[in-house]
Design a protein that fits this description.
By secondary structure, this protein is mainly alpha-helical. Helix content is about 75%, strand content about 0%. The chain has a domain at about 30-100. Helix 3 packs antiparallel against helix 4 (about 55-70) and helix 4 (about 55-70) runs antiparallel to helix 5 (about 75-100). The relative contact order is 0.07.
Length: about 100
Amino acid sequence: MERGLHARASFFSAWPVHCQAAAHSFNLLAPLHPLLILLVGMTTILAGILALRLNAFLALITAAIVVSLLAPGEPAVKIARVAEGFGRTAGSIGRHRAGGDRW
């Protein structure tokens, strides 16, 4: 058993120094690339609608929360931003319908 662990340790120690540093500095909390966040959001919507058979509204809200959590910043502020955007959009739809405004 020790021979296997020793062999693995010598394999990793044979890597160049910059590769060893990159392997140890991997951080899950590091900011993600914006296009990767966009891809995760689109995947969340498609998986919600097609695989989980969610209503499109629920899939969009879920994707908005997921994308918001992946963006940099404080989680409480990010969730509040999603709720504010949803409230503003829902309010404008209700105002147009109830007020008789023409689109």
